[in-house]
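Annotators were shown the component list below and the corresponding predicted structure, then asked to write short factual statements about the assembly.
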Amino acid sequence: MSLLSDLINLNLSDATEKIIAEYIWIGGSGMDLRSKARTLPKLVTDPTKLPKWNYDGSSTDQAPGDDSEVILYPQAVFKDPFRRGNNILVMCDAYTPAGDPIPTNKRFNAAKIFSHPDVVAEEPWYGIEQEYTLLQKDVHWPVGWPIGGFPGPQGPYYCGVGADKSFGRDIVDSHYKACLYAGINISGINGEVMPGQWEFQVGPSVGISAGDQLWVARYILERITEIAGVVLSFDPKPIPGDWNGAGAHTNYSTKSMRNDGGIHVIKKAIEKLGLRHKGHIAAYGEGNERRLTGRHETADINTFSWGVANRGASIRVGRDTEKAGKGYFEDRRPASNMDPYVVTSMIAETTILWKP
Amino acid sequence: MSLLNDLINLNLSETTEKIIAEYIWIGGSGMDLRSKARTLPGPVTDPAKLPKWNYDGSSTDQAPGDDSEVILYPQAIFKDPFRRGNNILVMCDAYTPGGDPIPTNKRYNAAKIFSHPHVVSEEPWYGIEQEYTLLQKDSRWPLGWPLGGFPGPQGPYYCGVGADKSFGRDIVDAHYKACLYAGVNISGINGEVMPGQWEFQVGPAVGISAGDELWIARYILERITEIAGVVLSFDPKPIPGDWNGAGAHTNYSTKSMRADGGIHVIKKAIEKLGLRHKDHIAAYGEGNERRLTGRHETANINTFVWGVANRGASIRVGRDTEKAAKGYFEDRRPASNMDPYVVTSMIAETTILWKP
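Structure shown to annotators:
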């Protein structure tokens, strides 16, 4: 169907100054991404210079039918890897016509936390490891798995190569390049322990941009799986039994932690996180209890533990951080379906602002 | 078949001055688009300088066999996104050899209304939201729907992303760029509430050009679905039951409405439209009674009601218009298979010329 591709790939820069902006937002479930496009008279790269827009909130469970307008505020701009040229992706958050964030708008509160002077001074960095599972369309069984059956047990698949060990690499590799093209700070990818499961990492990102970048990376991934005819799942335990779940381990550091002697700041921060374990877990993703069992490289959901190089702990401190006496740590508790605005801001709030 | 594409994509500008002009017209049903092409000696950008042409009206239900010539008058020129180079699309309307518009020529009357001095001075702007459904060829079942069954209920599909939520995006994106290339004032696109249904918007366009641009956009869409092997439907209620219909909401404003205090002009205009509700409905598309039920974001066909941000009304005024006390309003009554020449001119006639 290459005539269709000729049209999809038309480079309009020769024909017009106009550009297409795809406005992206999060729907009523907190995980469903939505987007629609509009024409702008010419290229804009500053989100504050982009027009606000609106959408039908009654169709996304975010407003009643007789008062359905929800307003979109542009927050971050990326290059559009699908339309290319001067076309853009715009990450937005949602407000009532009166200017209040709607209940599902988690970015608003995160932005408040990240603009608190004490948080700004600490320059919080995040590296998020987003795991996900690819499912065959219609049957919703993982990609590469035989219908009505199972592949061989876990072992050969982690970072594996070969037609019998790696399923869906074309999606993963196109996602990697598309994200780099878009301007997302994607730092790596790897095949995961469960066959059909993959991971990409975004970071290091400062403050609110960690959430923006992860959401746009998720959007790009869902657009790519749409093209590939494969279903994307962020379920934290897609297949029960002796199969790994999917998480969104969140690596974190502040200026103090990155400086000499930072290991003491890290230990204090981990203590505070331990005191608020239940509060964090409640915000770390739906269905996480199916994943955090204490097996399959997780810590039990009711236990808070930390350790150096311990993948069975809630929080893991890397050996290089331990050796250097400074660095970062990894919160392994968030599920793959967590909201990065919530998780990143909560970690900052607990470790920097909260007093026990 | 890459040899065929090489030929289709030949750039003739290096070999010859000649160009190909595709003359487009509307056939006897009022919705069937027809076109044929001719060679011209050199590039033309002014429709007045294009030659009139003719076609066999007895093959389109527009003339008897023994007197079958129908004359085509070129009215608007666009760049041809399929042949590219200097080739053009030409929107035409149809006349008898005697020079009279044939009965199915709705443009002629619209052009008269739009050249009335009162209408000209009010500079009527239109933004038309064209909804449409993509159907699988042969089965005529919506794209992405399982044969012999139904997808999950409406909810996830509006502006949705992903292989299980969005069906046919390649067609929609190819159409967006092709229209921009052609010079059609396409202002945006979005996935609709019913899976397999989409919408594009054309505008703001002034007066008669709204109709010309929408018909050309429809033509380009039908050419693209032809390439994709998918059937295009403008039926206003393609699937009975708990599935949204397809409309062509028409946004409208005049100079007075856009000026300070315009909200009062808007309210007067809406009152006049209310007094002529039945006449408008009769001209707003065949089969609209299957769509305008009062459910699925429509107002009942027998009721005329307007409201701010109310998607269940016949006419909706946006919150930003209410706040600024000037702007535009949206007539939500027209069906997807309406004739934009008829609808745009009728709205102008009722609100500007008609005296109750």
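Statements collected:
1. The longest helix of chain B spans residues 208-228.
2. Chain B has two domains: 1-104, 117-353.
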